[in-house]
Structure formats: structure tokens, C-alpha cells
Amino acid sequence: xxxxxxxxxxxxxxxxxxxxxxxxxxxxxxxxxxxxxxxxxxxxxxxxxxxxxxxxxxxxxxxxxxxxxxxxxxxxxxxxxxxxxxxxxxxxxxxxxxxxxxxxxxxxxxxxxxxxxxxxxxxxxxxxxxxxxxxxxxxxxxxxxxxxxxxxxxxxxxxxxxxxxxxxxxxxxxxxxxxxxxxxxxxxxxxxxxxxxxxxxxxxxxxxxxxxxxxxxxxxxxxxxxxxxxxxxxxxxxxxxxxxxxxxxxxxxxxxxxxxxxxxxxxxxxxxxxxxxxxxxxxxxxxxxxxxxxxxxxxxxxxxxxxxxxxxxxxxxxxxxxxxxxxxxxxxxxxxxxxxxxxxxxxxxxxxxxxxxxxxxxxxxxxxxxxxxxxxxxxxxx
Length: 382
What we know:
The longest helix is centred in the N-terminal third of the chain and has 19 residues, at 20-38. The protein is built from twelve helices and 13 strands. It is an alpha/beta fold. α4 (72-86) packs antiparallel against α8 (245-253) and α9 packs antiparallel against α10 (276-288). The strands form five sheets. Strands 2-1-3-6 form a four-stranded mixed beta sheet, with helices on both faces. It has a three-stranded mixed beta sheet with strand order 4-13-8.
């Protein structure tokens, strides 16, 4: 036993090799996920740094942004709008279309509209808002159909006021189920029966509406519209709508969003050229009932010349081929006002079926009347 050495304490062991690279990797991934949660990527470049799937995979994993709390005025407005939209419209035994004409004075195409309306009494009503001078009527369908009118200034809220004035008068007739806004330069492209069936047998309104990131779209937005109208919700479109009765009612009931555009969408405000009639109605319906509108107007206008104003038609322009081409268009095209000039092309769907987009057309000079009267029976049979 003398030769046996007794060892005290623990037996020494070789030091462990720590997986440092694993610890570092876990820390980096944890930090990335924390940053992604706190500061989620908004731009397209950030989205595609790690995966070709982009933001979608990350956004599916991350919790949704908390909903903004509505103001008292928003809450009240949305309750009323929701209630109107959810209430089935009253059925009419004699449903009619209200044709609402917004004009400075006399209507140069009354004779053409007279031909359009003939034989369809009891299926339409006519309302005329003449902002400058009392119109002289030549058609029996227009006599005594002038409403109380007020001055209209292009680009200002008075244009919206005139539209709402027309709607208010037309809504007094419970048989009016669809409402069409027309200018003094508008002409019909189809027969009355075609127009009536097109509008009455669908459950949407034809409100022009698209997202334009350029200077003549979202560049006109004012942050004074916050919190009710955010920049991402700002839309643009032509003012010439056709609208079902429920939409006409919620437009008349609205004061909250209307007041935002009345106060903060006007030419010259903050150095911008905001045009209320190009933005209020498209933005309003895009926010409160986006699925209830088509995103194009049923009234054709030609912007192909890319000028401040659309193309206007002279007498020499009016041919059978021109009208046939207009009535055969079955896609809507919007062009953004930014440097990209991106074309947004969508098929015109009527109850899910692709059909021609336009029922009316505008920007015709009065001198075209005789040719249009001569061609009316032919081009409206397309």
C-alpha cells in the first residue's frame, strides 16, 4: 500500500470546446427577428433581401398592425353608412333611371337625347342643373326639369355641391333606382333599352377610381386630411358616375369626408392643385365600399393626347367608324402621372362577363349634332 498514491480532489478533465459560432448565429437571428417585429420592412428593396418570396412570408408571420382607433365622427359616419349598405333597397314597381345633367346653360344635344328617350316614358327622369344661365329647352322631356342651381367653379367644391344638389332632387322620387351624371357635351352610345338593362341588372356603381402615385394623384394629398383620410387611401377618377340608390344615399349622408375635401382639396392650397371633383367621390367609395364599385366610368373620354384636357370632337371627326370603335372598347385604361406613366389596364366586367365599358361619351362640340342625329340609329345597334 506504500506504493499506492492517494489522489485528493476532482479528477482534472480537458476543457470543453464551446460552439461559439452557434451562439453568435442564434443572437444574430434573434436580433433580426426583434428588429423585423418592431420595424417591419415597408419598401420593396427591404422585402427581397433574404428571400424571393419578399414580404409576404414575413408579413404572414408577423402580427398585423394594430387598427387605428376611429374618431367619434368617423364612428358615427361609418355606422350610418354600414346600416344603409346593409339595408335592402326598397323594391319599386316602376324602377327608373335618373339622368342628371350638369351644364352652364342650354343643352346642345337635347334633340339627340329626345330621340334616345322616345318611347320609354315612365322608365326615366331628367334633372338639369344650369349654373350660369337659364336653359332654353327644345325637348318635352326637359321642360320644367330644371332644379335650383348655383354657381359652379371648375376645380372647387362647388362642383361637388352641384352633383349633390342633383342627387338630392333625384332621390325625392322613390322610383329612381340608378343615377347618371352627365355634362352638356355628353351623348348616348347605345339604345335606351341597352342602357337600362346594363345599369338596372347589376348591383354596382360605375365610379372611376384608381391609385396614382404621381404629382397629379397622390401628390395633391394634404396631411390636413388626417386622421380620417390617409395618403394610402387617396384616389383619383373622372367625376362622371352612374350610381345605385344606396350609394347615392350614403353620399348624401356624408359630411365628415366631404368636409375634408371641402377644406383641404382646392387649387393653390399648400402649393398643390387639388381638384375636389377628381378625388372626393373616388376616395370616399374606395374607403367605405370598394367592392361595390367598378373602377371605371361608364362615360368615355379620350385622354390619348396626354394634354391637360381630353380630346374634343369636331363635326369632321364624327364617323360611323369612330363611334363603332368607342362602343367596342372593353378594357379600362388609367395612366399614372409619375415619370413611369404606368398603364393600369383592367377588363370591363359586367356581372363577371367581359362587355363593352361605355354607355355614354363626352367632349362633343355642338356642331356635331346633325351628324350624330343622322348616325344615331346605326351606331346604337352595335
